[in-house]
Amino acid sequence: MKIDQHTVLYGVVGSPLGHTLSPVMHNTAFEVTGLNSVYLAFETRDLEGCMHAMRALCIRGMSVTLPFKSTVIPYLDELDPLAEDIGAVNTIVNDEGGLTGYNTDASGALKAIEESTSLSGRRCLLIGAGGAAHAIGFVLKERGLSIAVANRSSERGEALAGSLGCPFVPLKDLEATQADILIQTTPLGMYPGEDECIVPTGMLKEGMVVMDIIYNPIETKLLKEARSRGCKTISGLSMFVYQGAQQFKLWTGLDAPIGAMTNAVKRALTGTDIHCLAESIPDKTK
Q1: Any catalytic annotation for residue 69?
Q2: Going residue by residue through the chain (286 aa), what tens digit of pLDDT does each one get?
Q3: Pick the CATH number of 8-104+238-277 from 3.40.50.720, 3.40.1190.10, 3.10.20.600, 3.40.50.10860
């Protein structure tokens, strides 16, 4: 990577960011497409300062992750209609100092789910009430699914359920909840807390579709338990790459090299040559 006075700067803002592989994914995309650009991780709790810096330093684009997907909105000049409807932003485009917020989590999650299962007539249980849960819940509601929301904090969970017009399920009642599709959106189970799992194994039934939006590790404890009980599992890797590909398109106007981005993330996660992964981790993004 050659960095000079013409290099265009992008990044991700959030806290913590020790786990993020967004720089690996996006820098690979820049390299493959021959763009003189670099993507960095900006771990901070000073969101306002970061947004001022984005304008002042001409940072062309920013990914937004926990805990800022909703709180970043007041610092933006415009919102894409989908991001406004969802109430959460995970992507910012800087157009000559004007900051516009987008949400690519919604389309990324939908594409990952629809390539694995049919949504028609399904009941979905959404676990979590953060920005990703808002995005996924909104897009699934738009598709006409029956949704329920579960969350550790009743206040936040009930607020999301209210905005989606669906029931709220306390965590203690999860095992008795009926669902065809379960989508886990909380950070529980993410590296370095791989031994954590918010879902009681008793509710995992054969034939259920279980998605965990965590991509590090590729197979979380929840997905291992679900697979062992005959569930169809969806890793967060596909959603991560698909939402990243849409970010790349928004920032550059170019189609993203999805295969290269997927392989780069897999290599970073496994430390193994990508050719050894073909059977254990199918590349669904090709």
Answers
A1: yes
A2: 689 999 999 999 999 998 899 999 999 999 999 999 999 999 999 999 999 999 999 999 999 999 999 999 999 999 999 999 999 999 999 999 999 999 999 999 999 999 999 999 999 999 999 999 999 999 999 999 999 999 999 999 999 999 999 999 999 999 999 999 999 999 999 988 999 999 999 999 999 999 999 999 999 999 999 999 999 999 999 999 999 999 999 999 999 999 999 999 999 998 843 333 332 333 333 3
A3: 3.40.50.10860
Backbone phi, psi, residue 175, to 5°: -60, -25
> Which two three-digit tokens encode residue 198?
């918010």
Whether the bond between 187 and the residue before it is cis, its omega within 30 degrees of 0, is no
Quick check: 167 and 148 in contact, CB under 8 A? yes
Integer Cα distance of 269 and 209 in angstroms:
24
**Residue-wise burial string across 193-204, b where 16 or more C-beta atoms lie within 10 A, e elsewhere:** eeeebbbeeebb
- Backbone φ and ψ for 94, nearest 5 degrees, come out as -100, 110
**16 phi and psi, to 5 degrees?**
-85, 165
Q: In this structure, which topology does domain 107-235 adopt according to CATH?
A: Rossmann fold (3.40.50)
Instruction: Report how far apart, in Å, the C-alpha atoms of 221 and of each of 175, 194, 269 are.
Output: 17, 7, 15
* Helix extents (H) in 119-172: 131-142, 154-164
How many CB atoms within 10 Å of residue 7?
13
Neighbours of 4 (CB within 10 A): 6
Candidates 69, 111, 221, 266; catalytic one: 69
Angle at alpha carbon of residue 221, lines to 220 and 225, rounded to 5°: 120
